[in-house]
Amino acid sequence: MAAATSDAAAAATNESSGGEQKTRHSEVGHKSLLKSDDLYQYILETSVYPREHECMKELREVTAKHPWNLMTTSADEGQFLNLLLKLIGAKKTMEIGVYTGYSLLATALAIPDDGTILAMDINRENYELGLPSIEKAGVAHKIDFREGPALPLLDQLLEEDANHGAFDFVFVDADKDNYLNYHERLLRLVKVGGLVGYDNTLWNGSVVLPADAPMRKYIRYYRDFVLELNKALAADHRVEICQLPVGDGITLCRRVK
Ligand code: SAH
Ligand code: CA
């Protein structure tokens, strides 16, 4: 436990006290909670990059030049989402938190040609940065992008009975302090047997740090909300859950009632 905790501390603060290995690990700490960088690189190079759609690669490279690129979905998580959506046969989907659209494109490529994604973000500019790659992939027609905070949009959706239980899949990847508010609404919008994926539920490894450990400001700010979410999901019998150490942690919730 001690080693895991200090790794998480190094990742969360970007300190390099533990020598080369930890320094390198801290750089990708946001993207991988694996034991070493080498294992993560191995996965990317062996199984992910060789199979990555060329437009996903292009979007990833465009995003890499953007100052907030830390927020992007990692390539391995994109591959996971793409396969997951095909496995569950998702057709009507939603995404909260688009940024430049890497997870959005992974979703758009996975659903059928008449599938839909209701995509929400407060920032349209970043979405438009990735849009040319989405268009090139021939899947832009599946996306209905709405600019604005997601919570009022969800409430608007709930006003119409036709939207109740209508969604097969929702990917939640925006403001972590609202996840539990999203959850209450999404449980009414997703169908019974449908899936909601909450992203970043290991929050850069900070979930196992003591409260007084050094952390980057934004990590510290959202940490309590992530801890609260994880507890609440584990206690919520309206859903079956599975928390996976993919990317920064994703918790899948299947609505059962
Ligand atoms: N899924 C994206 C990453 C999302 S990053 C990818 O694969 O790259 C988080 C996004 O949430 C940011 O683009 C931010 O603008 C957006 N966001 C923050 N608060 C929001 C809110 N209240 N409603 C909708 N989007 C929000
Ligand atoms: Ca994320």
TrEMBL record:
Swiss-Prot/TrEMBL catalytic activity: tricetin + 2 S-adenosyl-L-methionine = 3',5'-di-O-methyltricetin + 2 S-adenosyl-L-homocysteine + 2 H(+)
Location of the region described as Disordered in the Swiss-Prot/TrEMBL record: 1-30
EC number(s) given by UniProt: 2.1.1.175
Biased composition (Low complexity): 1-13
Biological processes, Gene Ontology terms: methylation
Enzyme class: transferase
Keywords: Metal-binding, Methyltransferase, S-adenosyl-L-methionine, Transferase
Family recorded in the similarity comment: Belongs to the class I-like SAM-binding methyltransferase superfamily. Cation-dependent O-methyltransferase family.
Protein name (Swiss-Prot/TrEMBL): tricin synthase
Originating species: Oryza brachyantha
Gene behind this protein: LOC102714018
